[in-house]
Amino acid sequence: MSKLKTLLKNLGPGLLFACMAIGTSHLVLSTKAGAQYGWVMIIPILLANILKYPFFEFGIRYTAVTEKSLIQGYLNLGKKYLWIYAMVTIVSIFTLLAALYVVTAGLLMNLFQISSIGLSTVALGVFVFISSVLIIGRYKFLENSLKAVISILFVSLIITTVVVLQKGQVPGADSFQRPEIFNEVGVLFLIGLMGWMPTAVEASGWVSLWSIENTKTMKEKPTLKLALQEFNLGYFLTALLAVLFLIIGWMTLYGTGTELSGNAVVFADQVVNLFTVNIGKWAYILIAVAAFATMFSTCMTAHDAVSRVSIDVLKKLFPQKIAFQNKNFFAIVVILMAVLNWFVILQFSANMGTLVALATFVSFVMAPLIGWMNLKTVLGNDIPEEHRPKIGLRILTYLGIVFLSLFALYYCWIIF
Question: Per the UniProt record, which residue ranges are transmembrane (predicted)?
Answer without folding.
Answer: 40-60, 81-102, 114-136, 148-165, 185-212, 233-253, 282-307, 328-349, 355-375, 395-415
